[in-house]
Amino acid sequence: MTTRITTLIHISTLNILRLTLLCSLVTAAPLFAQASHSGHGQAGKQQADSARLVQLVRNATKDFRDVSNVPAGYGPFLGCVSGPDHGAMGVHYVNGGLVGDGEIDATRPEALIYETLKGQTKLVGVEFIVDAATWLSNHDNIPPVLEGQVFHLVGSPNRYNLGPFFELHVWAWRHNPNGAFVDWNDHVTCEGQ
Questions:
Q1: Domain total of the chain
Q2: Cα R_g (the chain), whole angstroms
Q3: Residue 75 contacts by C-beta under 8 Å, 6 or more apart in sequence?
Q4: What does the pLDDT read at residue 159?
Q5: What is the pTM of this model?
Q6: Whether residue 157 has a cis bond before it, omega within 30° of 0
Q7: 169, 123 in Cβ contact below 8 A?
Q8: Residue 112 has what pLDDT?
Q9: Torsion, Cα of 133, 75, 116, 179 (10° steps)
Q10: Quick check: helix, strand or coil at residue 31?
Q11: Domain membership flag for residue 109
Q12: How far is the C-alpha of 190 from the C-alpha of 193, rounded, in Å?
């Protein structure tokens, strides 16, 4: 008899737990629906921010599309950078003063990225770069964000022989099939260098 009572108590407890779980799911369903709906709103905002950042970069760099118009303070750095297994970035013309200032500004990228094709060197994108230690010491250990795009941390040691830095590519002048903010662009090559 004791075994039978213990079994009934165990079954009753399991049923109560199942009923509690079911009730919590039913109660939470509207919250999941609301979170899902707000997620779509957030995705829409991110797409708008992305388009806005690309347009800001285009507006700020339209005069530099030809390499002969590179503004003062920018110079080539490390030659053409190709991907480890696909794609490339191109030749970075870097402004060391902007890299070292610890700030980011959508209208003043730290690097202009050029590609040479058929004898012409044209702007394909930009890179925003900020020293990690400088940024983190002034921004409560939060990575930089520009128009909704979070920068990537490049640790040290790295292939550029630089200390840790945050970076964000914006392919404003050459389509990147992997996304406007992905480092390596399959539509950019170093073959013309």
A1: 1
A2: 26
A3: 93, 94
A4: 84
A5: 0.75
A6: yes
A7: no
A8: 98
A9: 20
A10: helix
A11: yes
A12: 6
Residue ranges making up the domain that contains 88: 62-170
Structural domain contains residue 85: yes
Question: Does the residue 27 lie in any domain?
Answer: no
Mean pLDDT by 10 residues, the chain (193 residues): 47 38 35 39 60 96 97 94 89 95 95 94 97 93 94 93 95 96 95 81
What backbone torsions phi and psi does residue 125 show, to the nearest 5 degrees?
-175, -170
Determine, yes or no, domain membership for 138: yes
Q: Tell how strand 111-117 and strand 120-131 pair up.
A: antiparallel
Task: Return d(Cα 111, Cα 178) in angstroms, integer.
Answer: 20
Token pair recorded at residue 23: 């009730």
For position 6, what pLDDT does the model report? 43
Sheet holding 75-82, edge to edge: 75-82, 88-94, 111-117, 120-131, 165-170, 152-154
Distance CA 120, CA 98 (A): 27
C-alpha to C-alpha distance for 151 and 158, rounded to whole angstroms: 16
